[in-house]
Specification:
424 residues, GMP Synthetase, Chain A, domain 3, 3 domains, five-stranded mixed β-sheet, elongated
Length: 424
């Protein structure tokens, strides 16, 4: 089964909480705080996998979570870091933000990419000791690991794309000019997924050709298999338009070319602007009485549209070498394979100010995810811990925003069950 587009949920590991602990040793009094830091959460890394051309492995499993970091330990021992997880994708996979559709990364090489970073471990109470606060009874919680929904969209990396209606001989041509050995039969939609082949042009050089199956009328709107595979032509530098000139199915070859080009133009202006070579296939099956008229009409069309044309037989191999040589000549003058530049940088996206303040009668209720995380290790029975919490509220602007919301002297404030009275 060929899968080339999946939505995946990924989450990095959370950082471990810092520890609240004090040194205990015989004959040692007032050993002081020695709570260790929490371990860092595991990252989610994406790497390319050679030899794969489908995202099938993500069809049924679409949620991946890295390990959390361990909590800090007494004795100033840090918690163990969470284990990273690595997701393998085929070369040419484009990673997009699921919500906006913007490109995050084009996996066109073997460079690993960290898509979600693990949260940092929280500080243990050993960091909060000062000359005036010698026994801090609080520590920092670990930060939450990044989480995002992404699209994996496979866009094959090929220099030359073979296009045309079903059953015109695209895969047959690919099998002749390359080492690809696809299943070939004389019926429509024999090919159910794109195929790649390396074409050797001698002296250690060559190019990659891809057969793009399933193009029919209405493909740009989702008809047949074409809509699924049109994206694989995006990167191609050159198109070889294979057309059946045998009239075996009673179709006019020029109308077939126009039909496919029309679908390319509807799908993307970029596709219709790519240079084309016309490979007029099945010359061995063409009725001699129709040969001169057919070649004349095709030659006129090719000249009008500035397309080189070759009359070939993918079955016998006639003139297929000429097509390869022309591809090599044109590719030497064309720009390299295109890559998609990032449009969305997850690391630069700042968290929104999720602070919620509402007045429930005589109580101002404050809510925020980061505030909830902050409160987890706070010991509200300890004066120093309470002062630390109050300082955070002041430094983060929470008290200022409460005043903007109308809080007056003597009003009650509730933050996740912890209530206090505002004193100006």
């Amino acid at each position: 089964m060929f899968i080339d587009r999946v939505k995946v949920s990924i989450k990095a590991g959370d950082g471990g909480d810092g520890a609240v602990a004090f040194h205990r040793e015989k004959y040692v009094t007032h050993g002081g705080p020695d709570g260790g830091d929490g371990g860092r959460g595991g990252d989610v890394i994406i790497m390319t996998e050679t030899g794969e051309n489908t995202l099938l492995k993500y069809q049924y499993r679409r949620k991946f979570v890295a390990d959390n970091g361990a909590k800090g330990l007494p004795g100033k021992m840090n918690g163990k870091a969470g284990k990273n997880i690595t997701l393998l994708v085929p070369v040419g996979t484009v990673i997009k933000d699921a919500e906006t559709g913007l490109v995050i990364r084009d996996m066109s090489d073997d460079t690993p990419f960290v898509i979600c970073r693990g949260g940092r471990g929280g500080w243990g109470n050993k960091h909060f000791a000062t000359p005036t606060r010698q026994a801090p009874r609080f520590a920092k919680p670990g930060l939450v690991g990044q989480h995002r929904e992404v699209l994996f969209e496979l866009k094959m990396i090929a220099d030359v794309g073979l296009i045309g209606l079903p059953n015109v001989g695209k895969f047959s041509l690919l099998s002749v000019i390359s080492a690809a050995r696809p299943k070939i039969d004389n019926y429509h939609f024999t090919t159910l997924y794109p195929g790649l082949g390396v074409v050797d042009t001698g002296e250690g050089s060559g190019f990659i050709a891809a057969d793009i199956p399933g193009l029919i009328e209405g493909a740009s709107e989702g008809a047949g298999l074409g809509h699924q595979f049109l994206r694989h032509i995006d990167r191609c530098r050159l198109l070889v338009h294979v057309v059946d000139i045998s009239y075996a199915e009673g179709r006019d070859p020029i109308e077939d070319i126009k039909l496919i080009n029309s679908e390319l133009g509807k799908y993307s202006e970029n596709l219709i602007g790519k240079p084309q070579i016309i490979a007029a296939n099945k010359i061995d099956e063409l009725d001699p009485e129709l040969a001169d008229e057919t070649k004349s009409r095709l030659a006129e069309y090719a000249q009008t549209n500035d397309c080189p044309i070759f009359y070939i037989s993918a079955y016998t191999g006639e003139n297929t070498e000429k097509v390869v040589n022309k591809c090599r000549e044109m590719l030497s003058k064309l720009p390299p394979i295109s890559t998609y530049h990032p449009e969305f940088n997850p690391d630069l996206v700042k968290a929104t100010d999720d602070l919620i303040i509402r007045n429930d009668g005589d109580v101002y209720v404050v809510e925020a995810d980061w505030l909830y995380q902050l409160m987890r290790p706070i010991n509200f029975d300890d004066h120093e811990s309470l002062m630390y919490f109050h300082r955070i509220l002041r430094d983060k602007g929470v008290l200022d925003k409460l005043r903007e919301a109308g809080m007056q002297d003597g009003d009650a404030v509730s933050i996740y069950g912890f209530e206090f009275e505002n004193v100006e």
